[in-house]
């Protein structure tokens, strides 16, 4: 029985056959267990020179006389102990262990399927569980798609509530309220008798200083009310609901445990407060937090299947697919969502997770399309139609926008991280409610006078992306006609700017400065706050300004060599909305350092597939410029700020240090805490647990030989000891603890020994003390290890943990190594 159990053998021993039978996406992790396995069961006790004669090696006397330990010892650990193999909060999972647990579970089910009809049914259930998960994904995506649609609708309604209310139907926003009105005009299409501003309702007048002040006051009142309610709900009910959530999702998908971060309370509160935070007018978006909301849904649905709920590695496959669904419904970009999960958040992304993510994104996008939250019968958020192609000379301003995006990204990351670090280290960070109220008040006071900062950020981006046409009444489209100066829009595409365009440019410049400053202080507040939409807004404003400038240059200087070949007199060769789209992609790329997924998201977001080359040029330029100032994006910077143990696969390790320079203990440290295989008592083992805070202990043959036997986790030892006291009689403080296959020889009056071999990892990863750290870092990244033991000629020297590697990398980069706080 023991040879068949994962917990009894130490995982992945003698598993070449299992590697051959593993699926292609599991071979990398599954093959890891045999790489460093230099220990065999037969040698465990032969390594100790104190072995007795053959007749008495593994016999013991207990009470009345001698007996075989295999016959009379109560091995209470023959069955797995509840809790063994699980992880504490704020600790990292062992990917190899989890994958081997799943393979052992599969073997056990297959070996029993011929015993009874019930066991055969269980094997069929396990075999079809992958398809059942897909069905669960469908339910999950339908739920999440509906949830995202409701968030969009509620956020638009509450955002318009700050300016007025629809008398005919309270649940209509401003646009919906005027849909059925027959009294609107082309110039004032947003004004209808059904929609009343607060000044009209309270004072009875729509114009004048008094009405302006009243509308100003009500705008600030609603903004502060929404912000206050959002931060209070987060602080009281779900502290994990604050922020974007993407840094924590990246860390969780890399194997870190954060209990409650993906729970039902977090899901509920984040959904509600996300609407309130967006409606408050703060410089934030809902698209990033929707990834967190989607992962909460995926985590809750994963508990329907023990295969995923009881295995942390398998659960992360579900979460990767859920993150793809989050981006899919946030932007209406199913393919971009899959690529976002692959490029930005996922740590381990096998092929089966790819098509599951694609299916999840597809269903979520289908549900979102059915709800039609944008009111345009389209899936995309910012659908655009440009009537002119882009020309080769325009690559110059596109690349300049990429440079601006990279500079903005580098500046924003440094400024935001500096402010968040100051918030952590000063008393101001102890009053999150006050901080949110203060930022919301400043935002509302400054935003109201400018129409481009007062309106919803998504509507602003849509207006900046839109090309001017006969049906557009925006101030950005008030060009002068050569025949009639008062005409708002000319059918002649080659047209000079009118006073409205120049006024709009000044307002956009002020809005750009406002957005840059407020986004720095808003991202990181204790409310749900995304960064996608604010970054895109900053880039869209800058791009629209550049686009209008290029348009006027082409009009007034069409004989320049840049424009002569492409811009004929009377021909429209510049599209300002395209520059806004390219600028938005560049700024978002500069902040997040995304490339492929970002380009796909933007062209899915706008429907502008023809303009993929300008997008690629701007995004790559922004990444190169941003990387010149620092290779990490905003999410990686916040991971490092919070001290999470995240080994970024994008970060290169080029130093020439060796394992012995990084391992613990160092020369000034106390000796390494180890356990011997058969001469510890329960009291001594409990003393080691109480006196140290290590997460695990190497097990050696003896302190003289220092020959390695295996590795035992602290949590597993603690659970095993507690379980032994409850269920096994005769276990005393002076009972002998042994990790070997057979019990050692003990005096006749000795209490019953305690066997803990089943919790021992018999094949821990080991490297020699001369192994380059570059190789060690690659092993940790690609196999997801928690720790690695260091040996010299087979003798144990020390241990390297994930935390040690992260601190060493921080030290090599001239950063504070103590900032890494978790294991």
Automatic annotation (TrEMBL):
The keyword Ion transport applies. SMART domains: CBS. It is a multi-pass membrane protein. InterPro entries: CBS_dom (IPR000644), ClC (IPR001807). Coiled coil: none annotated. The chain crosses the membrane at residues 219-241, 261-282, 289-306, 318-342, 391-413, 433-452, 504-525, 537-558, 578-603. PROSITE patterns: CBS. The keyword DNA repair does not apply. It comes from Solea senegalensis. One of its GO terms (cellular component) is synaptic vesicle. This is H(+)/Cl(-) exchange transporter 3 isoform X3. Its main location: membrane. Keywords: Antiport, ATP-binding, CBS domain, Endosome, Ion transport, Membrane, Nucleotide-binding, Repeat, Transmembrane, Transmembrane helix, Transport. Residues 663-729, 760-818 form the CBS domain. Signal peptide: none annotated. It is found in: Endosome membrane. GO terms for molecular function: antiporter activity; ATP binding; voltage-gated chloride channel activity.
């Amino acid at each position: 029985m023991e040879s068949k159990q994962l917990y009894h053998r130490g995982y992945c021993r003698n598993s070449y056959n299992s590697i051959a039978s593993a699926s292609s996406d599991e071979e990398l992790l599954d093959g890891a267990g045999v790489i460093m396995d230099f220990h065999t069961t037969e040698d465990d006790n032969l390594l100790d020179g104190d072995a007795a004669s053959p007749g008495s090696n593994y016999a013991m006397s207990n009470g009345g006389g001698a007996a075989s330990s295999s016959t009379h010892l109560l091995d209470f650990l023959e069955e797995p102990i509840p809790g063994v193999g699980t992880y504490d909060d704020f600790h990292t999972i062992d990917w190899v262990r989890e994958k081997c647990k799943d393979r052992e579970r599969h073997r056990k089910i297959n070996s029993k399927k011929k015993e009874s009809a019930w066991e055969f049914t269980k094997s069929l259930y396990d075999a079809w569980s992958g398809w059942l998960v897909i069905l669960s994904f469908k339910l999950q995506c339908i739920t999440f798609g509906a949830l995202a649609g409701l968030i969009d609708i509620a956020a638009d309604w509450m955002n318009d509530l700050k300016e007025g209310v629809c008398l005919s139907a309270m649940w209509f926003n401003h646009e919906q309220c005027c849909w059925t009105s027959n009294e609107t005009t082309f110039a004032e299409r947003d004004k209808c008798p059904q929609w009343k501003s607060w000044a009209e309702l309270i004072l009875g007048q729509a114009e004048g200083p008094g009405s302006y002040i009243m509308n100003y006051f009500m705008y600030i009142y609603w903004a502060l009310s929404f912000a206050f309610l959002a931060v209070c709900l987060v602080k009281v009910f779900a502290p994990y609901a604050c922020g974007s959530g993407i840094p924590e999702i990246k860390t969780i998908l890399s194997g870190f445990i954060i209990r409650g971060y993906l729970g039902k309370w977090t899901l509920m509160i984040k959904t509600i407060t996300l609407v309130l935070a967006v409606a408050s007018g703060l410089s934030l978006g809902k698209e990033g937090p929707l990834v967190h909301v989607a992962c909460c849904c995926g985590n809750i649905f994963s508990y329907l299947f023990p295969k995923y709920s009881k295995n942390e590695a398998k659960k992360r496959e579900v979460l990767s697919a859920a993150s793809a669904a989050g981006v899919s419904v946030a932007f209406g970009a199913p393919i971009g969502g899959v690529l976002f999960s692959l490029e930005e958040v996922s740590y381990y992304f096998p092929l089966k997770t790819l098509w599951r993510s694609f299916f999840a994104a597809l269903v979520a996008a289908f549900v979102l399309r059915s709800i039609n939250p944008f009111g345009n019968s389209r899936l995309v958020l910012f659908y655009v139609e440009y009537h002119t192609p882009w020309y080769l000379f325009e690559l110059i301003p596109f690349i300049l926008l990429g440079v601006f995006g990279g500079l903005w990204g580098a500046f924003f990351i440094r400024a935001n991280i500096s402010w968040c670090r100051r918030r952590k280290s000063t008393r101001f960070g102890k009053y999150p409610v006050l901080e949110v109220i203060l930022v919301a008040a400043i935002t509302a006071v400054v935003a109201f006078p400018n129409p481009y900062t007062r309106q919803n950020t998504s509507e602003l981006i849509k207006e900046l992306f839109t090309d001017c046409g006969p049906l557009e009444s925006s101030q950005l489209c008030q060009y002068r006609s050569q025949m009639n100066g008062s005409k708002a829009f000319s059918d002649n595409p080659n047209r000079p700017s009118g006073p409205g365009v120049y006024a709009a440019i000044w307002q956009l410049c002020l809005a750009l400065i406002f957005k840059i400053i407020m986004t720095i202080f808003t991202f990181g507040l204790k409310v749900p706050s995304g960064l996608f939409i604010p970054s895109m807004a900053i880039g869209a404003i800058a791009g629209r300004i550049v686009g209008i400038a290029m348009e006027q240059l082409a009009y007034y200087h069409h004989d320049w060599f840049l424009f002569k070949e492409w811009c004929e007199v009377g021909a429209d060769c510049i599209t300002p909305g395209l520059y806004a789209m390219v600028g938005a992609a560049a700024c978002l790329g500069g902040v997040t350092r995304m490339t492929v997924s970002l380009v796909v998201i933007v062209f899915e977001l706008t429907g502008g597939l023809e303009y993929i080359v300008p997008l690629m040029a701007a995004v790559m330029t922004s990444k190169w410029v941003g990387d010149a100032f620092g290779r990490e994006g905003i999410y990686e910077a916040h991971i490092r700020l919070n001290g999470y143990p995240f080994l970024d696969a994008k970060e290169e390790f080029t130093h020439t240090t060796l394992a012995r320079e990084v391992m613990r203990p160092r020369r000034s440290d106390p000796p390494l805490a180890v356990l011997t295989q058969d001469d510890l008592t329960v009291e001594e083992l409990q003393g080691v647990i109480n006196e140290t805070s290590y997460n695990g202990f190497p097990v050696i043959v003896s302190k003289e030989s220092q020959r390695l036997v295996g590795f035992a986790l602290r949590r597993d030892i603690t659970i095993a000891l507690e379980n032994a006291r409850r269920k096994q009689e005769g276990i005393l403080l002076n009972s002998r603890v042994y990790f070997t296959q057979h019990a050692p020889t003990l005096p006749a009056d000795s209490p019953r020994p305690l066997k803990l071999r089943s919790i021992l990892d018999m094949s821990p990863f080991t490297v020699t003390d001369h192994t380059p750290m570059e190789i060690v870092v690659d092993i940790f990244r690609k196999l997801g290890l928690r720790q690695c033991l260091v040996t010299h000629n087979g003798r144990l020297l020390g241990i390297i943990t994930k935390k040690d590697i992260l601190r060493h990398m921080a030290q090599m980069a001239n950063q504070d190594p103590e900032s890494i706080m978790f294991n």
